[in-house]
């Protein structure tokens, strides 16, 4: 990795340079005031590219069931078949979910 400063790197990015993996890692390791330097540069790029127009995508997933055999530790969605709140929609239930969407 070549030695570079965060301001120099951000200046290069503003000029069109695409970050390498090593450069991205450098930014991710930033602490203290360097974090504000990076967020300021990111906000300037956002303003340059998109102005103040905010867009979003509105969607909805139709869940046929929340019964899951994996029960990953981080998940707040999956339920055992016998858990309170477990469901498995039939065709009418799925159509109702789609109608609501
Ligand atoms: S994330 Fe939740 S729903 Fe998905 S497999 Fe894990 S426990 Fe099941």
Structural notes for this entry:
This protein has 2 domains: 6-50, no CATH class; 56-101, no CATH class. The N and C termini lie far apart (50 Å). The protein has helices at residues 6-14, 21-28, 33-50, 91-100. α1 packs parallel to α3 (33-50). It is an all-alpha fold and 101 residues long.
For the structure shown, list the relevant keywords.
101 residues; mainly alpha; 2 domains; 4 helices; elongated; binds iron/sulfur cluster
Named once each, the bound ligands are:
iron/sulfur cluster
Strand content: under 5%
Which H/E pattern describes the elements?
HHHH
| Main sheet specs | none
Q: How many separate helices?
A: 4
C-alpha termini separation: 50 Å
The share of residues in helices is 40-55%
Radius of gyration computed on alpha carbons: 23 Å
Overall strand count: 0
Name the assembly state.
single chain
Report the structural category.
Answer: mainly alpha
- Taking pLDDT < 50 over at least 5 consecutive residues as the criterion, the unreliable ranges are none
Overall number of domains:
2
Kindly state the mean pLDDT as a whole number? 92
What general outline do the C-alpha atoms trace? elongated
């Amino acid at each position: 990795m070549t030695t570079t400063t965060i301001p120099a790197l951000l200046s290069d990015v503003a000029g069109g340079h695409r970050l390498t993996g090593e450069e991205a890692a450098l930014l991710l390791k930033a602490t203290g005031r360097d974090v504000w330097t990076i967020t300021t540069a990111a906000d300037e790029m956002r303003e340059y590219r998109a102005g103040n127009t905010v867009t979003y995508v509105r969607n909805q997933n139709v869940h046929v069931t929340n019964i899951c055999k994996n029960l990953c530790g981080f998940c707040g969605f999956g339920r055992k078949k016998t858990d309170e709140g477990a469901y498995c929609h039939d065709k009418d239930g799925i159509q109702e979910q789609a109608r609501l969407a």
